[in-house]
Give the backbone structure.
Amino acid sequence: MSDEPLAIARPFLMPLMSTAYLVRAGADVVVVDAGLPQTAPALIRAVARFGTPRAILVTHAHYDHVGGAAALAAATGARVHASDHEADEMARGHAGARFEGKRNIRGLIFTPFVRLERNRTVPPVIDCARVRDGDLLPIGEGVRVVALPGHTIGQVGYLFEGTGDFFVGDAFASIVRPGRPPWHEDEAAELASLRRIAGLSWSRLHPGHGGPVERPAFERFLARLPKEPRRG
């Protein structure tokens, strides 16, 4: 891995807000996820200061991660990249409301609020570059696309191979410490994706909510996980 770190900015630092990442890898600038529709103007201003992006890399099509994607693409000319499933969701302006709450306290508390959003739409993204598991994007020293289904069926992560920085969307969150989001589309797939992350070579993880996570903290989190979804 390169000794030269990425330059990473996070425009929105409210604790529960999804994180849009501005990333400079060598001469290349990209955006990873694009925040809420109402934060698009602030994101565009931040990008103007940081540098014109080559691409907008979407982890998954929930409204708090793609709400600003269409406006940002129009303002910068950068093309949105996403998996087939998430690209189809964005083309319909769908916010991704098919989910189940986890069978725990956090799921019971948060899921009713999220269900209020199930009819939310976002500005659609029609022209989307489709990425697949294993693709190597020509950004910096290479960005590997890694399928991380579970939170949504088509969620992917983006592993910057030069530095080992791995942007994992909502595979997990890191508000106070690493933990799983309170809802998912496929819990068994979510657990498998977390085990897949553990088996890859990376230096730090950047989740969609919260700050970066080093391997020791991630491994402690992984040790607390159930082996399979809870039943009943």
Summary: The CA atoms of residues 8 and 23 lie 5 Å apart. DSSP finds seven helices and 14 strands in the chain.
